[in-house]
Write a structure and sequence with these properties.
Blueprint: H1 15-47, H2 53-90, H3 97-121
Helix pairs in contact: 1-2, 2-3
Length: 122
């Protein structure tokens, strides 16, 4: 049986850029998983301590925000990945600064809440 040679795809012109795009996407997914993991850690730590109403509320807020941030990270990184794939092929790539600022702001918010919880309420 003779092998037929496949024609290069449009994506194959920019293999390095597409691979970098995939690595970036996977890094965002790992970030999302880490945020959820840290929230579960805080919730489990909180359950083992005596707690005030304020600390219980803060832990619930941290857990809810962690879920929201993780879902936003997954959705926005997926959309960004698809858009960047098209932009790479069309050679019209533009960085997604608003996405980065939005997700960084959410991560700073939850990090601040973690810090407040650990240093003042625990």
């Amino acid at each position: 049986m003779k092998e037929t040679k496949q024609q290069p795809t449009e994506d194959s012109k920019y293999i390095q850029q597409h691979l970098a795009n995939e690595r970036t996407f996977l890094a965002w997914i790992r970030t999302s998983i880490a945020v959820i993991g840290i929230a579960f850690l805080v919730i489990n730590l909180h359950e083992k301590t005596t707690s005030s109403a304020l600390s219980t509320f803060l832990v619930q807020l941290i857990g809810a925000l962690a879920v929201v941030i993780s879902v936003c990270t997954i959705v926005f990184s997926t959309v960004s990945y698809v858009i960047k794939t098209r932009q790479i092929n069309e050679q019209t790539f533009r960085p997604s600064r608003p996405l980065i600022w939005f997700l960084a702001s959410l991560l700073l918010l939850i990090t601040g809440l973690f810090g407040y919880y650990f240093f003042t309420l625990l």
